[in-house]
Write a structure and sequence with these properties.
The chain is mostly helical. The protein has helices at residues 3-20, 24-103, 108-112, 114-125.
Length: 126
């Protein structure tokens, strides 16, 4: 047996011997107080278990929706990031074309020529 169990049995024996020497009314009052204490302890444990089960029940209901919400949030962030990344790349490509056009020694009429615009669109697609 464990040491604390042996000590508990020894204390119980001493208390039992002491109870035999007490008056009958005192023993009855002690038994009533013990019964009330045990009932209060059981009520406390039951109410605590009830609160724990209610909390886990609520978490169990919300958790699937929370997972779906997080997944949708990550998906939306990815879509928005992809859109801005593509817009940034397109702006960088346009910047390169604009720089090439501005640095070239072309006459003004070349910029208004429809064939030039077709060539420009064709070269930017490559």
């Amino acid at each position: 047996m464990r040491e604390d169990a042996v000590l508990g049995l020894h204390i119980r024996k001493i208390l039992d011997e002491g109870c035999e020497q007490l008056d009958g009314q005192i023993v009855v009052r002690l038994q009533q107080a013990r019964g009330q204490a045990i009932a209060a302890q059981r009520l406390s444990v039951v109410s605590h278990l009830g609160l724990v089960s209610i909390g886990s029940l609520q978490i169990g209901r919300v958790l699937p929706y929370l997972r779906t919400g997080v997944a949708l949030g990550v998906l939306m962030i990815g879509m928005i990031g992809s859109y801005y990344w593509n817009a940034y790349q397109e702006a960088a490509d346009n910047e390169e074309i604009d720089s090439a056009l501005l640095s070239a020694d072309l006459p003004v009429a070349a910029y208004t020529d429809q064939g030039f615009h077709a060539w420009l669109n064709h070269s930017s697609q490559e």
